Amino acid sequence: MPPQINRQSLEHTVRFVHDLDRARNVEDIASKVLQHLAQIGAETVIATAMPSVGINRRQQLSGVLFHEMPSEWVRNYAARGYAFKDPVIRRMISMAAPFYWNELEHEVQDDPIGQKVMHEAGEFGLKNGFSTSVLTLDGQAVGFSLAGKHFEVDPDMRGVLTLIASYAIGRAIALQQESTAQNKKIALSEREREALQWAAEGKNDWEIGEVMNISEHGADKHLRSVRAKLGAINRTQAVAEAIRRGLIA
Predict the structure, then answer these.
(1) Selection from 124, 97, 23, 98 nearest residue 65 by Cα
(2) The domain defined by 7-183 carries CATH number 3.30.450.80
């Protein structure tokens, strides 16, 4: 169980949650996390799906949910296949409990490759850090790490950082799903598009039927189909959404 969270830490976490709720896209998440945790020396952050056996470089990079890290380090990490050599990743895979990187010292003392990974990370500013693994609703394990040259190791912050990791990941997944839904291609038939265009110009079903040489019921059928495809509850919303998506002028 996470340590007791004092009132000051709780208030800070509440402010963070409210701020994250205002994030407009996944890219905002990383910057907001670092903004709120700059006071403890957090300079980099990453949230990524935990690697699985046989994963290639492209799959590894595509699993990154959000990050703000030196791009050269991210490229080197993937190119050198560090995912299964990194002591931080190994700990997150083997244990769900959050940890500070200084707790790995005994695990890497007889692991020259692990020492190499940690040393190279330090050269890019990832000297000290905190990591935890968060299980999403669909059962996907997502690793979350913070780091910095002067990152503070404070046992009393462990619970707060775990809460922040969980909420940041959840919010990023929600934003990602929203973006996917919004950008999903909507295919309107030529007749549906024509009916919607006339609706945008203020014509009712009877008038649309007249200009399209179909029945009033036929016009209504086209517009009901359009509303279903656009997820709109009424004609006005359908027109607005269609204009936003560039389906009609």
Answers:
(1) 23
(2) yes
